[in-house]
Design goal:
heterodimer; A: Immunoglobulin-like; 28% helix; flat; B: mainly alpha; Rna Polymerase Sigma Factor, Chain: A; Arc Repressor Mutant, subunit A; 2 domains; 8 helices; elongated
Chain lengths: 176, 201
């Protein structure tokens, strides 16, 4: 059974089931285990360390020191840890001009949504302008657009490449 | 000669395909660390099918997969003396295996890199990976994915790992892995659609 919780649609689920069925096809590997064991038996086993023996007296010391450390950590955290501050989210307006005609849907995916397409933008009647509001935590965020299912950056915005060469748009949510 | 084969539905990391459990692995590891070589054979027999399955899908052919899997178990044998984790031997093995697959793909790319610039577009190969042994549509499009995309799709939807486990195996962040998986799925859909359209003409 393959995990389905992060697949948005039935088409993706079907595709991944297909991939899983292809993937788990039995693999013939006659003699492979024997070949590995032959190599292992031919090698010296000196790399295996002798089991460490810890005396009972030393165990008492270790257990006692760990208990004292745990009590100190717990009491310190209980008295000193402040409640984390939750900054209120900021409404950020996205506006994108899609020059291509016949676009039905524009969605947004970003680090704020765990890269799941979550927000449909609305098109201004009779124009190619798509707009929408995102509620973001203050700070810098990355996002991409999903235009009729195709990933693309927002033209005209600040685009950065991540470590895999994928282009994302940077947006800054500043508190008022 | 001993024949082994992957069993459909058998999970590499959680042992939910039958009797094997991470605790059984720990017992076997302790026996290996005590010098019992036959216990290592039990570990190999237990994890070999899943490792071979992953390596074959990553590398695209059985011969390279067999080499990489043998190297993985050889390295595991040499490092088991220092293995101290509990309940995660399969994940530990997959970390070595994923690394070996990346090395094999990098070596293959170096071997296949042309010495002089290609003169015409017709000479440019369609895929930078070797063809799969079994010619299926899904096999072709998976082979055309980039290695990092193929890696995350196989671990997530082939082996059924959680993203947090894949992050440990690959060293990438969970957020980056999710984004990579999404883009890989989109690319698969697009490539499969394009192939279907070409055959329909």
């Amino acid at each position: 059974m393959i995990p389905h919780d992060d697949l948005p649609g039935a088409a993706e689920r079907e595709l991944m089931s297909h991939l899983h069925a292809w993937y788990i096809k039995p693999v013939a590997a006659d003699g492979a285990v024997d070949a590995i064991m032959e190599r292992v038996r031919a090698a010296p086993t000196r790399h295996l360390p002798a089991p460490r023996v810890v005396s009972a007296r030393r165990w008492w010391w270790i257990t006692g020191a760990a208990a004292v450390a745990a009590i100190m950590v717990l009491t310190t955290r209980a008295t000193r840890t402040p409640r984390p501050f939750q900054a209120p989210s900021v409404a950020v307006r996205l506006s994108v001009n899609i020059a291509r005609a016949g676009v039905d849907e524009v969605r947004v995916a970003g680090d704020f949504s765990d890269w799941k397409p979550v927000r449909a933008l609305d098109r201004a009647r009779g124009t190619n302008q798509w707009t929408g509001l995102l509620n973001l935590r203050p700070g810098m965020h990355r996002y991409v657009l999903l235009v009729d299912g195709v990933w693309q950056a927002n033209p005209g915005e600040l685009v950065v490449s991540d470590e895999f060469g994928e282009k994302n748009v940077l947006v800054v949510a500043s508190p008022p | 000669m001993t024949g082994t084969s992957a069993e459909p539905g058998q999970h590499a990391l959680r042992g939910d395909g039958g009797a094997q459990t991470p605790e059984d692995d720990d017992v076997l590891v302790r026996r290996v660390q005590a010098g019992e070589v036959s216990a290592f054979r039990s570990l190999v027999e237990r994890h070999h099918p899943a490792c071979t399955r992953y390596a074959r899908a990553m590398l695209g052919n059985s011969a390279d997969a067999a080499d990489v899997v043998q190297e993985t178990f050889w390295r595991a044998w040499n490092a088991l003396g220092t293995y101290t984790e509990r309940g995660s031997l399969a994940r530990w093995l997959f970390t070595i295996l994923a690394n070996q697959c990346r090395n094999a793909l990098a070596a293959r790319t170096r071997r296949e890199r042309p010495l002089a610039p290609l003169e015409s577009a017709e000479q440019v190969p369609a895929m930078n990976t070797a063809p799969l042994d079994d010619f299926t549509e899904i096999g072709h499009v998976v082979a055309a994915l980039s290695p990092p995309e193929r890696e995350v799709l196989l671990l997530r939807f082939g082996e059924g790992l959680e993203y947090s486990e894949i992050a440990i195996v690959t060293g990438a962040s969970v957020s980056a892995l999710k984004m990579r998986a999404r883009r890989a799925i989109e690319r698969l859909r697009h490539d499969l659609g394009r192939r279907a359209g070409r055959e329909g003409q």
